[in-house]
Design a protein that fits this description.
single chain; alpha+beta; two-stranded antiparallel sheet; 12 helices; globular
Protein backbone atom coordinates (compact mmCIF):
# COMPACT_ATOMS: atom_id res chain seq x y z
CA UNK A 1 0.00 0.00 0.00
CA UNK A 2 1.65 3.22 -1.14
CA UNK A 3 2.56 5.81 1.47
CA UNK A 4 0.08 8.44 0.28
CA UNK A 5 -2.81 5.99 0.60
CA UNK A 6 -1.57 4.93 4.03
CA UNK A 7 -1.49 8.56 5.13
CA UNK A 8 -4.96 9.33 3.75
CA UNK A 9 -6.53 6.30 5.41
CA UNK A 10 -4.81 7.09 8.70
CA UNK A 11 -6.14 10.63 8.61
CA UNK A 12 -9.61 9.41 7.68
CA UNK A 13 -9.59 7.08 10.70
CA UNK A 14 -8.56 9.85 13.10
CA UNK A 15 -11.01 12.36 11.64
CA UNK A 16 -13.91 9.93 11.93
CA UNK A 17 -13.04 9.14 15.54
CA UNK A 18 -12.60 12.77 16.58
CA UNK A 19 -15.83 13.74 14.82
CA UNK A 20 -17.56 11.20 17.06
CA UNK A 21 -16.49 12.91 20.27
CA UNK A 22 -13.36 11.04 21.33
CA UNK A 23 -10.53 13.25 22.57
CA UNK A 24 -7.57 11.06 21.57
CA UNK A 25 -6.90 9.19 18.34
CA UNK A 26 -3.55 7.57 17.63
CA UNK A 27 -1.94 4.63 15.87
CA UNK A 28 0.64 2.12 17.12
CA UNK A 29 2.72 -0.31 15.11
CA UNK A 30 2.38 -3.93 16.19
CA UNK A 31 6.14 -4.11 16.82
CA UNK A 32 5.55 -2.11 20.00
CA UNK A 33 3.55 -5.05 21.40
CA UNK A 34 6.24 -7.69 20.86
CA UNK A 35 6.83 -8.06 24.62
CA UNK A 36 3.13 -8.38 25.50
CA UNK A 37 2.02 -11.70 27.06
CA UNK A 38 1.58 -14.53 24.60
CA UNK A 39 -2.02 -14.79 23.48
CA UNK A 40 -2.61 -11.08 24.08
CA UNK A 41 -0.62 -9.57 21.21
CA UNK A 42 -2.39 -7.97 18.25
CA UNK A 43 -1.38 -10.77 15.88
CA UNK A 44 -2.63 -13.40 18.33
CA UNK A 45 -6.11 -11.92 18.26
CA UNK A 46 -6.15 -10.97 14.58
CA UNK A 47 -3.67 -12.87 12.38
CA UNK A 48 -2.13 -10.53 9.85
CA UNK A 49 -2.57 -7.47 12.06
CA UNK A 50 -0.38 -4.54 11.06
CA UNK A 51 -1.65 -1.66 13.19
CA UNK A 52 -3.51 -0.80 16.38
CA UNK A 53 -5.73 2.28 16.59
CA UNK A 54 -6.15 3.73 20.09
CA UNK A 55 -9.03 6.07 20.93
CA UNK A 56 -9.61 7.84 24.25
CA UNK A 57 -12.23 10.02 25.91
CA UNK A 58 -11.62 12.19 28.95
CA UNK A 59 -13.74 11.80 32.07
CA UNK A 60 -15.87 14.88 32.74
CA UNK A 61 -14.96 16.84 35.84
CA UNK A 62 -18.43 16.53 37.38
CA UNK A 63 -18.31 12.74 37.88
CA UNK A 64 -14.72 13.03 39.12
CA UNK A 65 -15.93 15.49 41.75
CA UNK A 66 -19.00 13.56 42.90
CA UNK A 67 -17.07 10.31 43.27
CA UNK A 68 -14.55 11.94 45.59
CA UNK A 69 -17.33 13.66 47.53
CA UNK A 70 -18.98 10.27 47.98
CA UNK A 71 -15.74 8.74 49.21
CA UNK A 72 -14.93 11.59 51.59
CA UNK A 73 -18.39 12.01 53.11
CA UNK A 74 -20.34 8.82 53.85
CA UNK A 75 -23.61 10.76 54.02
CA UNK A 76 -23.12 11.64 50.33
CA UNK A 77 -22.48 8.11 49.05
CA UNK A 78 -25.59 8.33 46.85
CA UNK A 79 -23.81 10.64 44.38
CA UNK A 80 -21.32 7.89 43.49
CA UNK A 81 -23.67 6.64 40.78
CA UNK A 82 -22.66 9.62 38.61
CA UNK A 83 -19.10 8.35 38.29
CA UNK A 84 -20.22 4.77 37.73
CA UNK A 85 -22.36 5.73 34.76
CA UNK A 86 -20.87 8.95 33.38
CA UNK A 87 -17.25 8.38 34.35
CA UNK A 88 -17.08 4.76 33.31
CA UNK A 89 -19.97 2.88 31.71
CA UNK A 90 -21.44 5.40 29.30
CA UNK A 91 -18.06 6.76 28.20
CA UNK A 92 -17.04 3.26 27.21
CA UNK A 93 -20.33 2.16 25.69
CA UNK A 94 -21.68 5.23 23.95
CA UNK A 95 -18.53 7.09 22.94
CA UNK A 96 -15.49 4.80 22.83
CA UNK A 97 -17.13 1.55 21.73
CA UNK A 98 -19.33 3.35 19.21
CA UNK A 99 -16.37 5.24 17.73
CA UNK A 100 -14.36 2.01 17.59
CA UNK A 101 -17.15 0.25 15.71
CA UNK A 102 -17.39 3.11 13.21
CA UNK A 103 -13.62 3.11 12.67
CA UNK A 104 -13.65 -0.66 12.20
CA UNK A 105 -16.40 -0.36 9.60
CA UNK A 106 -14.43 2.33 7.75
CA UNK A 107 -11.34 0.14 7.65
CA UNK A 108 -13.33 -2.83 6.39
CA UNK A 109 -14.95 -0.67 3.72
CA UNK A 110 -11.41 -0.09 2.48
CA UNK A 111 -10.82 -3.82 2.16
CA UNK A 112 -9.13 -4.55 5.49
CA UNK A 113 -10.16 -6.52 8.57
CA UNK A 114 -10.63 -4.73 11.89
CA UNK A 115 -11.24 -6.05 15.40
CA UNK A 116 -12.50 -3.53 17.99
CA UNK A 117 -11.57 -4.29 21.60
CA UNK A 118 -14.32 -3.08 23.91
CA UNK A 119 -13.52 -0.37 26.43
CA UNK A 120 -14.46 -2.52 29.41
CA UNK A 121 -14.46 -6.26 29.84
CA UNK A 122 -12.57 -9.06 31.55
CA UNK A 123 -12.13 -12.12 29.37
CA UNK A 124 -10.18 -14.07 31.99
CA UNK A 125 -12.10 -13.52 35.21
CA UNK A 126 -9.87 -15.88 37.20
CA UNK A 127 -6.93 -13.52 36.69
CA UNK A 128 -8.96 -10.34 36.02
CA UNK A 129 -7.24 -9.99 32.66
CA UNK A 130 -8.67 -8.68 29.41
CA UNK A 131 -7.94 -10.12 25.98
CA UNK A 132 -5.99 -6.98 25.09
CA UNK A 133 -4.71 -4.05 27.13
CA UNK A 134 -6.27 -0.76 26.02
CA UNK A 135 -4.09 1.25 28.40
CA UNK A 136 -0.88 -0.26 27.04
CA UNK A 137 -2.16 0.35 23.51
CA UNK A 138 -2.78 3.98 24.43
CA UNK A 139 0.84 4.35 25.48
CA UNK A 140 2.03 2.55 22.34
CA UNK A 141 -0.02 4.98 20.24
CA UNK A 142 1.68 8.01 21.75
CA UNK A 143 -1.06 9.33 24.03
CA UNK A 144 1.12 9.37 27.13
CA UNK A 145 3.12 7.19 29.52
CA UNK A 146 2.42 4.52 32.11
CA UNK A 147 2.21 5.93 35.62
CA UNK A 148 3.15 4.19 38.85
CA UNK A 149 -0.53 3.22 39.17
CA UNK A 150 -0.30 1.25 35.91
CA UNK A 151 -2.62 3.62 34.04
CA UNK A 152 -1.92 5.65 30.93
CA UNK A 153 -1.20 9.25 31.92
CA UNK A 154 -1.71 11.99 29.35
CA UNK A 155 -0.23 15.49 29.69
CA UNK A 156 -3.71 17.05 29.64
CA UNK A 157 -5.70 14.81 31.97
CA UNK A 158 -3.29 12.50 33.76
CA UNK A 159 -5.08 9.14 34.12
CA UNK A 160 -8.58 10.64 33.73
CA UNK A 161 -9.69 9.13 30.45
CA UNK A 162 -10.97 5.81 29.11
CA UNK A 163 -9.49 4.01 26.11
CA UNK A 164 -10.60 1.60 23.42
CA UNK A 165 -8.58 -0.12 20.69
CA UNK A 166 -9.04 -1.40 17.14
CA UNK A 167 -6.64 -4.06 15.85
CA UNK A 168 -6.50 -4.05 12.06
CA UNK A 169 -4.76 -5.61 9.08
CA UNK A 170 -4.57 -2.14 7.54
CA UNK A 171 -1.08 -0.63 7.27
CA UNK A 172 -1.50 2.74 8.99
CA UNK A 173 1.03 5.45 9.80
CA UNK A 174 2.11 4.98 13.45
CA UNK A 175 2.37 7.97 15.75
CA UNK A 176 5.58 8.62 17.66
CA UNK A 177 5.51 7.60 21.29
CA UNK A 178 5.14 10.35 23.87
CA UNK A 179 8.36 12.38 24.00
CA UNK A 180 7.41 15.11 26.47
CA UNK A 181 8.64 15.58 30.04
CA UNK A 182 8.12 12.70 32.45
CA UNK A 183 4.61 12.94 33.87
CA UNK A 184 4.78 10.49 36.78
CA UNK A 185 7.31 11.10 39.54
CA UNK A 186 6.70 8.53 42.30
CA UNK A 187 9.47 9.94 44.49
CA UNK A 188 8.27 13.52 44.22
CA UNK A 189 4.68 12.31 44.53
CA UNK A 190 5.18 11.23 48.10
CA UNK A 191 7.25 8.06 48.14
CA UNK A 192 10.24 9.91 49.56
CA UNK A 193 8.23 11.47 52.38
CA UNK A 194 5.66 8.74 53.08
CA UNK A 195 7.24 5.63 51.60
CA UNK A 196 4.39 5.36 49.11
CA UNK A 197 3.16 7.51 46.24
CA UNK A 198 -0.29 9.12 46.25
CA UNK A 199 -1.91 6.39 44.16
CA UNK A 200 -0.54 3.63 46.39
CA UNK A 201 -1.65 5.38 49.58
CA UNK A 202 -5.10 6.00 48.10
CA UNK A 203 -5.95 2.32 47.65
CA UNK A 204 -8.45 1.33 50.39
CA UNK A 205 -7.32 -2.31 50.27
CA UNK A 206 -3.56 -1.71 50.01
CA UNK A 207 -3.44 -3.68 46.78
CA UNK A 208 -0.31 -2.09 45.31
CA UNK A 209 2.88 -3.98 46.07
CA UNK A 210 5.56 -2.09 47.98
CA UNK A 211 8.41 -4.07 46.43
CA UNK A 212 7.17 -5.88 43.30
CA UNK A 213 7.09 -4.03 39.98
CA UNK A 214 5.95 -4.66 36.42
CA UNK A 215 8.09 -3.95 33.36
CA UNK A 216 6.46 -2.77 30.13
CA UNK A 217 8.68 -2.80 27.04
CA UNK A 218 7.45 -0.94 23.95
CA UNK A 219 10.77 -1.40 22.08
CA UNK A 220 11.31 2.35 21.78
CA UNK A 221 10.52 3.07 25.44
CA UNK A 222 10.30 1.08 28.66
CA UNK A 223 8.29 1.74 31.81
CA UNK A 224 8.27 0.37 35.35
CA UNK A 225 5.21 0.54 37.56
CA UNK A 226 3.84 -0.97 40.77
CA UNK A 227 2.42 -4.47 40.70
CA UNK A 228 -1.08 -4.75 42.13
CA UNK A 229 -3.63 -7.43 42.97
CA UNK A 230 -6.11 -7.08 40.11
CA UNK A 231 -8.13 -10.09 41.26
CA UNK A 232 -8.85 -8.60 44.66
CA UNK A 233 -9.47 -5.13 43.19
CA UNK A 234 -11.90 -6.29 40.53
CA UNK A 235 -13.48 -8.96 42.69
CA UNK A 236 -14.19 -6.91 45.80
CA UNK A 237 -14.53 -3.25 44.92
CA UNK A 238 -15.31 -3.92 41.27
CA UNK A 239 -18.08 -6.41 42.06
CA UNK A 240 -19.35 -4.25 44.88
CA UNK A 241 -18.73 -6.55 47.84
CA UNK A 242 -16.47 -4.19 49.77
CA UNK A 243 -17.95 -1.93 52.50
CA UNK A 244 -16.68 1.00 50.41
CA UNK A 245 -19.78 0.49 48.25
CA UNK A 246 -22.86 2.57 48.98
CA UNK A 247 -25.36 0.69 51.15
CA UNK A 248 -23.36 -2.51 51.34
CA UNK A 249 -22.78 -4.07 54.75
CA UNK A 250 -20.54 -6.87 53.54
CA UNK A 251 -18.33 -8.69 56.02
CA UNK A 252 -14.66 -7.81 56.26
CA UNK A 253 -12.77 -8.93 53.17
CA UNK A 254 -10.29 -11.71 54.03
CA UNK A 255 -6.62 -10.95 53.49
CA UNK A 256 -6.19 -13.85 51.08
CA UNK A 257 -8.92 -13.77 48.45
CA UNK A 258 -9.30 -16.28 45.65
CA UNK A 259 -12.11 -16.79 43.15
CA UNK A 260 -13.96 -19.23 45.44
CA UNK A 261 -13.97 -16.74 48.31
CA UNK A 262 -15.17 -13.97 46.01
CA UNK A 263 -17.92 -16.17 44.59
CA UNK A 264 -19.17 -16.79 48.12
CA UNK A 265 -19.09 -13.07 48.96
CA UNK A 266 -20.92 -12.17 45.75
CA UNK A 267 -23.59 -14.78 46.53
CA UNK A 268 -24.17 -13.06 49.88
CA UNK A 269 -24.35 -9.56 48.38
CA UNK A 270 -27.67 -7.68 48.68
CA UNK A 271 -30.13 -8.14 45.77
CA UNK A 272 -30.00 -4.47 44.71
CA UNK A 273 -26.25 -4.73 44.21
CA UNK A 274 -26.65 -7.72 41.92
CA UNK A 275 -29.15 -5.76 39.83
CA UNK A 276 -26.74 -2.82 39.53
CA UNK A 277 -23.93 -5.10 38.39
CA UNK A 278 -26.06 -6.27 35.45
CA UNK A 279 -25.64 -2.82 33.85
CA UNK A 280 -21.93 -3.06 33.10
CA UNK A 281 -20.93 -6.37 34.62
CA UNK A 282 -19.77 -4.76 37.85
CA UNK A 283 -21.47 -3.12 40.77
CA UNK A 284 -19.12 -0.32 41.79
CA UNK A 285 -16.00 1.55 40.79
CA UNK A 286 -13.53 2.94 43.25
CA UNK A 287 -11.13 4.90 41.06
CA UNK A 288 -9.09 6.38 43.90
CA UNK A 289 -5.75 5.51 42.29
CA UNK A 290 -6.99 7.45 39.25
CA UNK A 291 -8.87 10.30 40.92
CA UNK A 292 -6.18 11.25 43.43
CA UNK A 293 -3.31 11.23 40.97
CA UNK A 294 -1.87 14.79 40.96
CA UNK A 295 -0.97 14.61 37.24
CA UNK A 296 -3.60 16.54 35.31
CA UNK A 297 -5.72 17.11 38.41
CA UNK A 298 -8.42 19.70 37.51
CA UNK A 299 -7.67 22.69 39.72
CA UNK A 300 -11.32 23.64 40.20
CA UNK A 301 -12.21 20.11 41.32
CA UNK A 302 -9.40 20.15 43.86
CA UNK A 303 -10.45 23.59 45.11
CA UNK A 304 -14.08 22.54 45.61
CA UNK A 305 -13.05 19.38 47.44
CA UNK A 306 -10.61 21.12 49.75
CA UNK A 307 -13.04 23.96 50.47
CA UNK A 308 -16.28 22.05 51.00
CA UNK A 309 -15.16 18.49 51.73
CA UNK A 310 -11.78 18.68 53.46
CA UNK A 311 -10.24 15.26 53.84
CA UNK A 312 -10.09 13.92 57.34
CA UNK A 313 -6.73 12.69 58.55
CA UNK A 314 -6.36 9.34 56.84
CA UNK A 315 -5.09 6.07 58.13
CA UNK A 316 -3.42 3.77 55.63
CA UNK A 317 -6.07 1.49 54.19
CA UNK A 318 -9.00 3.62 55.39
CA UNK A 319 -11.08 6.29 53.70
Amino acid sequence: MESSRVFRLTQAVKTLALDNHVDYAGVASIERFSSAPEGHRPGDLLPGAQSVVSLGTRINKGPQLTQQIALRDRSMRHVAFSYRWLGYGLINMYINDRAALLVARLLEEHGHTALPIVGSGVEDARHMMAAFSNRHAAVAAGHGEIGWNGLCLTPENGPRQRFVSIITTAPLAPDPMYQGPRLCDPEGCGRAAHGRSVCVRACPLNLFSVDETVQADFVEKQFTYAAMDHVKCGGTIGLGIHPLVLGNDSPKIPKDVDMEVMADLVAKAPPWLKLVSVAFGRGHWCGLCLLRCPVGMPQDVETILNTHYPRREERQGAL
